[in-house]
Q: What sequence folds into this?
């Protein structure tokens, strides 16, 4: 199977067609729309496989197909498709995970009255993400990027009758917008400096040697080279989309959407876009920019893991773990290992989709109860969900040797350790490993072990096959995918870097780090078990306090409030914004409003003058004329007496007069 | 004075015309006014006959033809007039000409 880059557009086009079908079908066409969405994405998956095999045949090549979109003056705006291993791996992952999530949604959303719209939006989401992946033009990428934002807004706010969901959708949209503004500025600057937005264009693209050389020699601005500035602006977009510190606040709130949407956002589509963008424009990033990216990534990784420790909402814990894992990916890019970042992105997509779908399965079974204090004891009642969820968790934690997360995290730790720059990211990542193990142990213990602490948890039962089958498939890949990139045979990283040969090395080369991270994982799990596992039997009610809250109440409360980031933003940006709004309002009302008012008064005055002139001058003239006409008419009408005798008499006199004239003047 | 038949006829028709005119002017009953008008019309008919019979140019039946047409027209006129009178009567419950003055200006 091989696929020319020319036909790459089919991959995003198929879900787009499904979305169009969804939009045009009446509400009752549930199975049609769902079927179209799933079939379209599955077909896209097969085409992506063909694309993958084409790309792997020659991993160093960037197959492109560019075309002119429109011409504007002397400038030509060109778009294009790009096929290389990065695109192909991402497309395959998105379509595969997406298809499974779609199938899971069949069961999860079955009772929802807006079932049809849901699949329509899902298809749009997938289409936008795939469009972003195959784009060879940063402009096209940006267009799809914004479409992803729109679709996420629609889906996070899918249950918009809940005020919290509507607010979360708005928050996600606006927060990512802030990053997108930076992205757009970066694009404009890049277009100005490089004269093109095509990534690869036979030597003229922005990621190719000519343009990179020109950018590198460009003048510096405020001590920052132009290339660094552009790279950082593009990174702003990724910060917004991928939930990096300080714009991470929208991601946990996005949990207000239906659980399959959370899975899609966190695994396959939305947040992956930012990391993908950074990996895509990696040749453009200067060491300065990379340093910033690494530090932001490290902060995010640490922050997400810390906050996750004290959350009670099942999905929120997973959301913060996503924030943390995205931090790892950014960190990997920052320390110069984009292939490790993409490796982690791919493994993370599978195990995080698995975790979210597993959480969805729990929530669905427990009648939409997602507070872990209310759950418990589900391991007996939902064996399949428990088993798959546990596999996902172990992959996330990085339990040694058999789980994919271990290998991808290992690759990142290696890169962070080997970097020439600051070692802060490396230590932050190590602390993150301990915290990740700790909060995931807590999550598993609270949800699946001990006593059921509410009515819903006690009466939960396993879901139907349509929901559990995707879990099993994802669980398989959550284990298997790791073996594509082990240090012994790093096939995936080699292909992503465009190499045909794979240079593995023995595990013993980096054994110190391997042992260290395994030890840290064990430490985290042990601490989690000591604090939560042992006390499970004692806690039978949902009101029982969290053991960590007993140990360190103030820290726990502070973490529970998510380090008060929302409050901080409300007290700073919110206050400034409110002040600006009030000031603008005042300015609008008094200054502009005054001017408008004055103009209105002027208009009114001239109108009055006009009316007076009309009434006094023109009207008087017309009135006099009509009065005259009426008077003369009345005078004439007096001749019409209505007296027939009078008329006859008049006639007779006239006759006599005529006769006299004829007789007297006759003959003349 | 010589009694030529033509002046005699004209004198007679003039008398008849004056009689009709006076009748039409003096009466207030609309039917009688109509009668007066018919008298004046007949005076004119008499003139046709007289001029045809005693006038300078004689032709076979010109005058008679005129008169026959005139009488036919007068008959039609009388029918219309009488119909009008009936309509007026229905409206004002009498046929006094002085009171049928609604169309005055």
A:
């Amino acid at each position: 199977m091989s696929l020319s880059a020319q036909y790459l557009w089919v991959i995003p086009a198929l879900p787009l067609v499904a979305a169009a079908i969804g939009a045009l079908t009446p509400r009752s066409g549930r199975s049609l729309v769902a079927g179209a969405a799933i079939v379209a994405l599955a077909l896209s998956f097969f085409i992506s496989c063909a694309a993958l095999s084409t790309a792997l045949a020659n991993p160093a090549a960037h197959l492109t197909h560019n075309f002119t979109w429109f011409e504007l003056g002397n400038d030509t705006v060109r778009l294009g498709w790009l096929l290389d291993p990065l695109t192909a791996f991402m497309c395959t992952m998105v379509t595969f995970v997406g298809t499974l999530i779609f199938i899971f949604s069949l069961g999860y959303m079955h009772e929802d009255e807006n079932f049809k719209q849901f699949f329509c939006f899902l298809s749009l989401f997938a289409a936008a993400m795939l469009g972003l992946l195959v784009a060879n033009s940063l402009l096209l990428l940006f267009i799809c990027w914004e479409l992803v934002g729109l679709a996420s807004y629609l889906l996070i706010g899918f249950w918009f009758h809940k005020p919290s969901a509507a607010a979360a959708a708005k928050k996600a949209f606006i927060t990512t917008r802030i990053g997108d503004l930076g992205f757009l500025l970066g694009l404009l600057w890049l277009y100005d400096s490089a004269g093109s937005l095509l990534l690869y264009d036979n030597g003229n693209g922005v990621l190719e040697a000519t343009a990179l050389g020109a950018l590198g020699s460009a003048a510096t601005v405020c001590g920052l080279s132009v290339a660094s500035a552009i790279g950082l602006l593009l990174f702003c977009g990724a910060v917004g989309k991928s939930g990096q510190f300080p714009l991470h606040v929208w991601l946990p709130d996005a949990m207000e959407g239906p659980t399959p949407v959370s899975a899609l956002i966190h695994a396959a589509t939305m947040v992956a876009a930012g990391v993908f963008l950074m990996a895509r424009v990696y040749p453009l990033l200067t060491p300065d920019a990379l340093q910033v990216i690494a530090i932001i990534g490290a902060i995010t990784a640490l922050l997400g893991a810390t906050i996750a420790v004290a959350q009670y909402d099942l999905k929120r814990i997973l959301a913060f773990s996503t924030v943390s894992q995205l931090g790892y990916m950014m960190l990997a890019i920052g320390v110069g290992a984009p292939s490790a970042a993409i490796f982690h992105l791919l493994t993370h997509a599978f195990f995080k989709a698995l975790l979210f779908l597993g959480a969805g399965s729990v929530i669905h079974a427990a009648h939409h109860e997602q507070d872990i204090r209310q759950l418990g004891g589900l391991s007996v009642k939902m064996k399949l969900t428990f088993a798959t969820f546990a596999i996902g968790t172990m992959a996330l934690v990085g339990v040694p040797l058999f789980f994919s997360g271990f290998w991808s995290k290992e690759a990142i730790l290696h890169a962070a350790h080997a970097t020439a720059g600051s070692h802060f990211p490396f230590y932050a990542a190590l602390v993150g490993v301990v915290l990740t193990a700790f909060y995931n142990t807590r999550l598993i213990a609270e949800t699946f072990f001990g006593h059921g602490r509410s009515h819903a948890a006690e009466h939960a039962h396993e879901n139907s096959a349509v929901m559990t089958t995707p879990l099993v498939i994802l669980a398989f890949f959550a284990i298997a995918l790791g073996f594509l990139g082990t240090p012994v045979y790093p096939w995936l990283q080699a292909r992503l870097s465009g190499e045909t040969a794979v240079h593995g090395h023995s595990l013993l080369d980096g054994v110190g780090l391997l042992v260290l991270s395994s030890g840290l994982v064990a430490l985290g799990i042990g601490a989690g078990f000591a604090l939560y596992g042992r006390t499970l039997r004692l806690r039978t009610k949902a009101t029982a306090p969290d053991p960590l809250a007993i140990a360190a109440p103030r820290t726990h409360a502070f973490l529970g409030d998510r380090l008060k980031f929302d409050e901080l933003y409300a007290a700073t940006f919110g206050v400034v914004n409110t002040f600006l709004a009030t000031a603008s309002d005042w300015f609008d009302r008094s200054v502009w409003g005054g001017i408008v008012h004055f103009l209105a008064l002027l208009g009114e005055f001239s109108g009055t003058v006009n009316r007076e002139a009309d009434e006094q001058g023109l009207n008087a003239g017309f009135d006099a004329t009509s009065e005259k006409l009426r008077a003369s008419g009345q005078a004439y009408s007096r001749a019409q007496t209505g007296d027939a005798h009078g008329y006859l008499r008049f006639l007779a006199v006239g006759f006599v007069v005529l006769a006299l004239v004829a007789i007297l003047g006759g003959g003349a | 004075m010589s009694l030529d038949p033509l002046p005699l006829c004209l004198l007679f028709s003039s008398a008849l015309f004056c009689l009709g005119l006076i009748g039409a002017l003096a009466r207030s009953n609309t039917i009688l006014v109509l009668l007066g008008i018919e008298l004046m019309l007949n005076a004119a008919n008499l003139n046709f006959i007289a001029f045809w019979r005693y006038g300078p140019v004689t032709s076979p039946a010109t005058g008679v033809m005129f008169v026959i047409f005139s009488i036919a027209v007068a008959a039609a006129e009388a029918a219309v007039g009488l119909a009008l009178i009936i309509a007026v009567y229905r409206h004002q419950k009498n046929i006094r000409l002085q009171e049928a003055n609604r169309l005055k200006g």
Remarks:
- Helices of chain B lie at 5-26, 30-54, 62-92.
- The mean pLDDT of chain B is 88.
- Chain B has one domain: 5-99.
